[in-house]
């Protein structure tokens, strides 16, 4: 057992230390002999054991004695710990590739490959930023009437839904990736603005009215709002300028946005979005699977296309 | 002897980090030997006995001086009786293959032979059918002289024995062994690898026919050795290796060998090594064998007295340390000898040998896996042996 653990440990060390490579080779020779049902006659284990016990002896005779007596048991423990560690490392790498987090889909916690947890961060309702305190597992599209929200390419086999806020940093990070995803793949795309920051509340009726007035121009409006400076989003004049640039009838939209019918439509849509158990933005649903926070592009693409490792 | 001055001659000992107790394998080299080797490569790196230029003349002169020094060192009557070899093994093989042994010839050895003085006879037994007789030792490692006498009475061609065993440090009664062998007309070769560095040997007085030893165990460079042989015997032997520098002339169909020692020294020699060996011999003569013996016995006595107090420890050979030269070889039942040696190195930088010391036959016949061997030399100190004993006890306590 010691040979295996020594091979693993020395193999890793020898990547960085040339002086350990010969030992790693010796350990490999020992492992190879064992797996080919031959005795390991090189004395590698005894040599390493003596060296380790000798080093310990200079510090503590008791520790050296215990180490020597329970050497095989310690080797087993270390072996199991190493295998477990390799398994968890592998699982972490797999999760990071698949979901953008070492801990799994929408799971927060430390990840060495994403130490700041950027791929899981959301802007929470009320405007604070960070990892949301909601329950990611409860995020769902079940029972949500998506027909109420702006959509394009209706009838496509795959479906992508982005629920985000125009002034949310993380939605702004996810938006270009989602846009790339829908441009490269024929999907039924739905967008819903969920104003986690109060200064963007006024965009709900404007968006509703703009989509009602001209569906095609609505997507350009979306692009312009996400492309603009975050600080400008709260300024009504800025939005009016965009509407005008795109070719919307600004007066008609302003008139529409203050109507009682629009108000009730906006409320209805907010109630509908609450059914998703949303607690922050962005949330991207791809064929019903909810991804909280801005994920790497490969994650979106893999979930859309299924298993792909290239 | 000023031990501090002596130790300052050895670069490794100057650092004081290593306790070197593996002198039976090879000794350390003093600066004087290292300088002699360097001088050759630096000042006259040429061939000896071939070219006529001034560098070649210088090398020839230096090698000749080394040969004379070695001859004087062992009491040889003539410098030509000293043949430079690579080591003891080569010297023994030279005799084994040059002596003209034939089927039925009897070669007698002891039961504690280094593989160097065992394997050649086993091979000759298989190849040409010589008879190889092994004389046992008693429980103290002393040669059973009764069985030796009996073997001689039964007839012997050659007695080839280890002078001082590298296993336990015990020397055979060489004068008696040689005298008795000569009485029945047998020739005698001694493996002097462990004897020459530790005691004064006079080959003429001993009347031994051949004596092989190594340079690297007596402060000399590795890859150097000597075969001493009586001139009249060497003249009769056919050379073992032939070729360059062994002949005075040759035609396409014939050749004429040079006289000894050249006819046995084929090819370009290790001139730096030979010159270094000469320097080693001079260094040893300056130290003196009385001093060497005194230091070794004193240190060995201390170690022995301490080791016999350790439960389960067995010293190979006689209890009397004065009979074991500078060697203490021991084993502990149930404890791995390699682990003990490695831990001594790891804990205190103490270098000892572990294993079967190339005397596998002795260990295998007794089902003993191996031993730890501490072998001392004149540059070792009481502080070092105290450290060895203390650390050995510490190591054993955790095993």
TrEMBL record, chain A:
Keywords, alphabetical: Isomerase, Membrane, Transmembrane, Transmembrane helix
GO-annotated molecular function: isomerase activity; oxidoreductase activity
Top-level division of the source organism's lineage: Bacteria
TM segment ranges: 73-90
Domain DSBA-like thioredoxin: 184-302
SUPFAM superfamilies: Thioredoxin-like
Pfam families the record matches: DSBA (PF01323)
Identification of the protein by name: Protein-disulfide isomerase-like protein
Protein species of origin: Candidatus Beckwithbacteria bacterium GW2011_GWB1_47_15
Automatic annotation (TrEMBL), chain B:
Cited CDD domains: SufS_like
Catalytic activity: (sulfur carrier)-H + L-cysteine = (sulfur carrier)-SH + L-alanine
Pfam family, one: Aminotran_5
Protein name from the UniProt record: cysteine desulfurase
Source superkingdom: Bacteria
InterPro entries noted in UniProt: Aminotrans_V_dom (IPR000192), Aminotrans_V_PyrdxlP_BS (IPR020578), Cys_dSase_SufS (IPR010970), Cysteine_dSase (IPR016454), PyrdxlP-dep_Trfase (IPR015424), PyrdxlP-dep_Trfase_major (IPR015421), PyrdxlP-dep_Trfase_small (IPR015422)
PANTHER family: CYSTEINE DESULFURASE, CYSTEINE DESULFURASE 1, CHLOROPLASTIC
Protein EC: 2.8.1.7
Single GO term (MF): lyase activity
Domain Aminotransferase class V: 19-388
Keyword Lyase assigned: yes
Alphabetized UniProt keyword annotations: Lyase, Pyridoxal phosphate, Transferase
Gene3D superfamilies named among the record's database cross-references: Aspartate Aminotransferase, domain 1, Type I PLP-dependent aspartate aminotransferase-like (Major domain)
EC main group: transferase
Family note: Belongs to the class-V pyridoxal-phosphate-dependent aminotransferase family. Csd subfamily.
Requisite cofactors: pyridoxal 5'-phosphate
GO biological process: cysteine metabolic process
